[in-house]
């Protein structure tokens, strides 16, 4: 009888969805995923709370508690994606976190209504997205492969500026683009590339973690790491459930639900990219159903903990596409690390000290991997006239218009908030409309010939 690799503990299992990996070798891969998304997971909640308290100075919000909750929910959501509960979860190597996609709408609702109304809108919107996920078999056929390919490509392009911003020191940094920031980012990038080129076997896939460690050590010697948050953080704390009493407003709910639909498109793109880039196959209906159900229902749970919605993190999709490490057991340690960071604030504070240029040096290549995966998916769909038209127009308008956001200035505020800075939303709408409208006869005739 042939031995089944999945039934034994082996490092070779890192390239398979199932199977055990030696714990000592699995933990670094899990932590690598946490480091790739940790700062981005915290930034949205910090920005939203800042805007809400500026609009309402009497608002009493414990930011440290919300940050702790955000880490806990991100870990819980990631764990359920890996190991589903009922029909909730995709069984794919997907890491969840607080999304920038919702940022504009969250600021709009929290400042024009109040924070409690924002929480109510998140809960309702999450339940709606989760329900749509469970009903995926009824509408999945409307999302053609070329649409998913365009969404994945748009996600990659949208992240390039995120990586570049981190490389320069982070948005809003007083020393953005300074020599020391660029030097630190470059050293980190070179460290990643060197390790990826020189390391052998499974060690090669830890190039991002190696780059982060080297970059962090260099940053310490350059005086760019502030350790005070670690000293100030408490040792142990239970996440606070329902720190705010939800309020419900129809206008706020509608504005949030629209963004949840956009987030659903991103999640479909992320999970499709994981399957294509990491597993070398198409996504299944069950995986779409589970990923969206987790996306939605866990966002509702996040609202109950006073936090913003969570969704699949494209940063981690890029890591999967680059390393091909898809093992659920391995990535589970990343989810557990996030949960521990939510229970032991000092752990979270340690990760939060990671300088932006170090993060940028590691992620800029990962994000490029998503673009390449998307282009590969478009190629797999075939360059028929119909597919070429859908891809060319959706990407040129979807990405091009967001480079000139003033083009949306005469449109309603809600429309501007959703589309002016979100290329994924633009590409999704244009690609799906064109896919439904353009006749298929032309493509079918080409295949017959």
Automatic annotation (TrEMBL):
GO terms for cellular component: plasma membrane. Keywords: Cell membrane, Membrane, Transmembrane, Transmembrane helix, Transport. InterPro entries: NCS2 (IPR006043), UacT-like (IPR017588), Xan_ur_permease (IPR006042). The chain crosses the membrane at residues 34-54, 66-85, 92-111, 117-135, 142-162, 182-199, 206-227, 247-265, 329-352, 358-378. It is a multi-pass membrane protein. Its main location: membrane. Pfam families: Xan_ur_permease. It comes from the Bacteria. It is found in: Cell membrane. GO terms for molecular function: xanthine transmembrane transporter activity. Belongs to the nucleobase:cation symporter-2 (NCS2) (TC 2.A.40) family. PANTHER family: PURINE PERMEASE C1399.01C-RELATED (PTHR42810). This is Xanthine permease.
């Amino acid at each position: 009888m042939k031995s089944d690799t999945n039934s034994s503990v082996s490092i070779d299992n890192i390239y398979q969805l199932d199977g055990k990996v030696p714990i000592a070798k699995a933990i670094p891969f899990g932590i690598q995923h946490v480091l790739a998304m940790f700062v981005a997971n915290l930034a949205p909640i910090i920005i939203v709370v800042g805007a809400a308290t500026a609009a309402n100075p009497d608002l009493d919000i414990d930011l440290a508690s919300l940050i702790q909750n955000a880490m806990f929910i991100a870990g819980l959501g990631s764990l359920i994606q890996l190991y589903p509960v009922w029909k909730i979860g995709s069984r794919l190597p997907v890491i969840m976190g607080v999304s920038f996609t919702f940022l504009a709408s969250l600021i709009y609702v929290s400042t024009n209504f109040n924070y409690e109304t924002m929480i109510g809108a998140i809960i309702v919107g999450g339940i709606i997205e989760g329900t749509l996920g469970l009903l995926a078999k009824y509408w999945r056929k409307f999302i053609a492969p070329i649409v998913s390919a365009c969404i994945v490509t748009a996600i990659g392009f949208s992240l390039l500026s995120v990586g570049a911003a981190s490389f320069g020191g982070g948005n809003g940094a007083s020393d953005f683009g300074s020599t020391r920031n660029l030097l630190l980012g470059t050293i980190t990038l070179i460290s990643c590339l060197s390790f990826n080129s020189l390391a052998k076997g499974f060690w090669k896939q830890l190039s991002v973690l190696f780059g982060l460690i080297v970059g962090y050590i260099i940053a310490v010697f350059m005086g760019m790491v502030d350790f005070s948050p670690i000293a100030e953080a408490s040792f142990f704390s239970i996440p606070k459930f329902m720190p705010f009493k939800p309020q419900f407003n129809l206008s706020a709910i509608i504005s949030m639900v629209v963004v949840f639909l956009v987030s659903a498109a991103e999640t479909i793109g992320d999970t499709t990219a994981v399957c294509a880039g990491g597993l070398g196959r198409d996504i299944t209906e069950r995986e779409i159903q589970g990923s969206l159900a987790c996306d939605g229902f866990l966002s509702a749970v996040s609202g109950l903990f006073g936090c913003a919605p969570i969704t699949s993190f494209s940063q981690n999709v890029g890591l999967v596409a680059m390393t091909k490490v898809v093992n659920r057991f391995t990535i589970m340690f990343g989810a557990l690390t996030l949960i521990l960071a939510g229970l032991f604030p000092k752990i979270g504070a340690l990760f939060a000290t990671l300088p932006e240029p170090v993060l940028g040096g590691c992620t800029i290549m990962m994000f490029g991997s998503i673009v390449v995966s998307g282009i590969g998916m478009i190629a797999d769909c075939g360059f028929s006239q119909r597919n070429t038209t859908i891809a060319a127009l959706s990407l040129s308008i979807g990405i091009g218009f967001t480079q000139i956001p003033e083009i949306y200035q005469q449109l309603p505020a809600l429309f501007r908030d959703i589309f002016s800075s979100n290329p994924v939303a633009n590409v999704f709408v244009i690609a799906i409309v064109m896919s439904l409208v353009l006749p298929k006869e032309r493509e079918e005739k080409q295949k017959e010939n």
